[in-house]
Amino acid sequence: LGQNGASRFSRLRQALAGVSEKMLTQTLRTLERDGLVSRTVYPEVPPHVEYELTALGQTLREPLKALTEWSVLHIEEVITAREEYDGRTR
Fold this sequence. Notes:
Shape: elongated
Oligomer: single chain
Largest sheet: 3 strands, antiparallel
Helix content: 55-70%
Number of strands: 3
CATH topology of the largest domain: Arc Repressor Mutant, subunit A
CATH architecture of the largest domain: Orthogonal Bundle
Order of helices and strands: EHHEEHH
Strand content: 15-25%
CATH class of the largest domain: Mainly Alpha
């Protein structure tokens, strides 16, 4: 869910290439249940549904940004560790 407010399901699905529709639906439902995402249905034909981060969901932006930055900085070390592990366990 972007910084620009609400996103439609189809936009989220495009942004998350490789994620199945079923998995995205399940994840959005869980995030909604946890109070991190709000879901708004507009009574149109076909129905128009938008998802948006709640105030609680917004509080995750900084921790997730830090995790992303860490991942970028340490990806080579993670790959090396995986290769070493795989070499030992084959």
